[in-house]
Design brief:
Elements (H helix, E strand, L loop, with lengths): L6 H9 L13 H15 L3 E6 L2 E6 L8 H12 L6 H9 L4 H11 L6 E5 L3 E5 L6 H15 L7 H12 L3 H4 L2 H6 L1 H8 L9 H14 L2 H10 L1
Antiparallel strand pairs: 1-2, 3-4
Length: 229
């Protein structure tokens, strides 16, 4: 079993309240998961981004599956699409995958990190919850984010940059860290999100990361559109 978590798994871990196993309020986690899936395809060189005028179109680069069902399903969507689409469209499509939260949560249950359970809402409705049973992986990813945000290191790997960017744009950083402390590191976070701090990562990975980070910028717009409808 792969020990390293995928970006969409990390996003869900940040979004879930550890003991309750429910999503923290005030986050746009579903769009973060959709963007994380797109980022995985970019970082693994399964897709690439083409600048076409003002639009950033997604092109299929390699149809070879990664062996992770959810990512491979998204890759198949890109591969079988009749027309090319922009980054925003693919984030929306990926975030709209049926039972997305539960599918990612079940993966984390199989890894022994979460536990699937049920509770009652208003003593009437039953819902699935996913309390944390192994806090180690989440502590490690929070440690990575903490190191990136609250130190002045320039050695940040592309996956952490993508995770930070998505967590920042979808309200997840405020769930994990103190808001006042984050405000004091606003300039630092902006540097990271803009790709000014890349560390020792390979140039190819940085380029893929930057393409993924651009997706994060459209999250609030997507959410506002959804709410208005």
């Amino acid at each position: 079993m792969q020990k390293k978590l995928f970006l969409h798994e990390e996003i869900l871990l940040l979004a879930l309240r550890d003991e309750e196993g429910t999503i923290a309020s005030g986050t746009m986690y579903q769009y973060a998961i959709g963007a994380a899936l797109l980022a995985e395809l970019l970082l693994s060189k399964r897709i690439e981004v083409e600048q076409s005028g003002k639009r950033k179109l997604v092109n299929l680069f390699s149809p070879t599956p990664l062996g992770e069902p959810l990512i491979d399903e998204c890759l198949e969507k890109v591969s079988s699409a009749k027309r090319r689409a922009v980054l925003q469209t693919w984030v929306s499509r990926f975030s709209g995958v049926k039972n997305l939260k539960h599918r990612v949560a079940r993966q984390l249950c199989r890894r022994g990190i979460l536990r699937a359970d049920e509770d009652k809402v208003l003593l009437i409705f039953t819902r699935k919850i996913y309390p944390e049973v192994n806090p180690g992986p989440e502590r490690e990813l929070i440690r990575r984010l903490e190191h990136a945000i609250f130190t002045d290191t320039r050695d940040i790997d592309p996956r952490t940059v993508v995770l930070l960017s998505l967590a920042n744009s979808t309200g997840l950083l405020k769930v994990v860290f103190d808001k006042k402390k984050l405000k004091g590191r606003k300039a630092r976070i902006k540097q990271i999100v803009n790709g000014e701090i890349t560390g020792k990562a390979a140039t190819e990975a940085i380029q893929a990361m930057q393409a993924a980070v651009m997706v994060a910028c459209i999250m609030p717009t997507l959410m506002a559109t959804t709410v208005s409808h």
